[in-house]
Amino acid sequence: MSLARLQSRAGNGLDAPPVSVEVHLAGGLPSFTIVGLPEAAVRESRERVRSALINSGFDFPARRITVNLAPADLPKQGGRFDLPIALGVLAASQQLPGNSLLDDMEYLGELSLGGELRAVPGVLPAVLAASAVSHPVTLPSENYNEACLVRSAKVVPAVSLTQLTAYLRGEVPAFVTPQPGPPLLPAAPAVPDLKQVSGQQLGRRALEIAAAGQHSLMMVGPPGCGKTMLAERLAGLLPSMTDVEALETATIYSVSRSGFDINDWRARPFRAPHHSISPVALVGGGARAMPGEISLAHNGVLFMDELGEFDRRVLDQLREPLESGAIMVARANRSVRYPSRFQWISAMNPCACGYEGDPSGRCRCTLEQVARHRARLSGPLIDRVDLQVRLCALAPVELFSTSTQPETSAQVRSRVHDARERQKARGKNVNARLTSAELECCTALTTDSRAFLRKAAECLGFSARGHYRVRAVARTIADLAESEMVREEHLAEALQFRFLDRKPAVAG
Predict the structure, then answer these.
(1) Distances (CA, A) of 257 to 185, 253, 284, 402
(2) How far apart are CA 47 and CA 51, in angstroms?
(3) What is the pLDDT of residues 141-182, one digit of tens each?
(4) Cα R_g (the chain), whole angstroms
(5) Residue 60: which of 95, 97, 107 has the closest Cα?
(6) Where does residue 482 rank: exposed (0-12), middle (13-18), buried (19+ CB within 10 A)?
């Protein structure tokens, strides 16, 4: 037989379209050609396959070898096609029985020059797609634990080309250990505790509300007042991820440059990009359309410290994913959609020197300079922030007080869990994701409450989106208070977390 066909899968964001690897041997001058829109790493597989076959004890056929990766118009990238190409050469040259290559088996793996199999990125999407059509997958043993996160998958791990071909001939059993289920909890949840934060009762309250309703939060205050400490403790207040959420997040990391670490299973991601980040690094893109920070924070927290130092064009990239929970990365030859349902937490100083409004009077910024500092953030972006809290510097008496012990993360997490259960019992999304129609149903207002909210809207001048954001936050406050009704006091507390909507004092 001079023709062999094997099945594999390409990578296209979170999709893994099937690829047929066809290997044909013909007479003529020896050559090795790969067609089917391969990128440089795929074309280089010719040298890896040749060396791997020779060093594994096989003969490399001195014939005209043509490898077709179909469909021809689908871009192919990475070293994942090394293994099916090598097996195809062996089958086409009759060094491997053709009937040993199962028609429904799919193959993924990069080869070293010695014939060992190396791990490849993007395994989870490929295994998920193969499992959906009940196809077993042969892959490097280094990818085995990651592939086993898909509990319905049939996975055959392999250490080397020699070991795999012996298995395909029926000479040795498959190198398979009992397929483990994914761990239920993160291996080492090193999350700082809220009890380490002194004072800042308003900030702690805002953090609890944000965790309970999955609201976005912006903290504005002088340097050293505890903004970063509060943000870093949000992950410890959130409920554990479900299996579905954990698999979604793991799939994104599987295709990212950093890769997926099995020890991070079910641990909510906490991403804190530096303010010098580029738009592509934040939202995703590049030549391979890789996921950005907003997608790596999916089902977790995206914390942006020193918000005023970020480029305004970078910040405005957040507007669409904050609304839709997804981002479309479009390039000339492909379009990739990544989920980006993250909880956005940010912190910034109130002015350039950082001490505007401080009782010590250290700030020397003019009103125009303060307004210019805040103008770095666009109005449409600020309008999408549910909770806007102004923090003050801690007084020494608060910092060194031992009269009251701060609440621990476990105590606050218990209330957050109860509030999330009430939201789940209503059969709706978490409060931050409720549509306007769902909010009307969940936050029915009395005549007095509606009049109170209308008067507040007239005074503060917030938009229609801001109106519904206030109602969503008030719904969360009511859930924390174990109240079925959204009362006027709940609306009043929600309104105090919209301080950036207040009309500026520097109109003239």
Answers:
(1) 24, 8, 11, 46
(2) 6
(3) 999 989 989 988 999 999 999 999 998 888 877 655 444 555
(4) 28
(5) 95
(6) exposed
Nearest residue to 155 via CA among 221, 117, 108, 225: 108
Residue 48 φ/ψ, nearest 5 degrees: -65, -45
pLDDT at 504 exceeding the cut of 60:
no
Percent of the residues in the chain that have a pLDDT greater than 90, as a whole number: 58
Integer Cα distance of 321 and 330 in angstroms: 15
Integer Cα distance of 453 and 457 in angstroms: 6
Q: Enter the tokens of residue 371.
A: 């307004």
Residue 41 is given by DSSP the state H
On the CB side of 155, how many CA atoms lie within 13 Å of its CA? 31
Query: Does the pLDDT value for residue 487 go beyond 60?
Result: yes
Look at residue 491 and give its three-state secondary structure: helix
The H-assigned helical ranges of 39-122 are 40-43, 45-55, 82-92
Determine the pLDDT at residue 176: 52
Q: Boundaries of CATH 3.30.230.10 in the chain?
A: 3-168
CATH topology of domain 195-425: Rossmann fold (3.40.50)
pLDDT(400) > 80: no
User: pLDDT per residue over 417-444, tens digit each?
Assistant: 999 999 988 877 899 998 888 888 888 7
Return the beta strands (E) in 62-181 as ranges: 64-70, 106-107, 110-111, 117-118, 137-140, 155-158
> Which residues have C-beta within 8 Å of that of residue 225, sequence separation ≥ 6?
200, 391, 392, 393, 394
Q: Which two tokens stand for residue 412?
A: 């606050």
Please state, in angstroms and rounded to a whole number, the distance separating the CA atoms of residues 265 and 363: 46
As a whole number of angstroms, the distance between CA 147 and CA 176 comes to 13
Class of the CATH-defined domain 3-168: alpha beta
Q: What pLDDT score does 188 carry?
A: 44
Hey, what are 69's tokens?
């990766």
Contact (Cβ atoms closer than 8 angstroms) between residue 266 and residue 185: yes
- What is the token pair recorded at 397? 């008496």
Q: What is the CA angle 306-311-312, rounded to 5?
A: 105
pLDDT, tens only, 223-267: 888 899 999 999 889 998 888 999 999 999 999 988 888 888 888
**CATH 3.40.50.300 domain span(s) along the chain:** 195-425
Instruction: Note the pLDDT of residue 466.
Output: 86
DSSP assignment of 178-240:
--PPPPSS-S------GGGS-S-HHHHHHHHHHHHHT--EEEE--TTSSHHHHHHTSGGGSPP
Among residues 299, 181, 318, which one has the least CA distance to residue 250? Answer: 299
Distance CA 235, CA 233 (A): 6
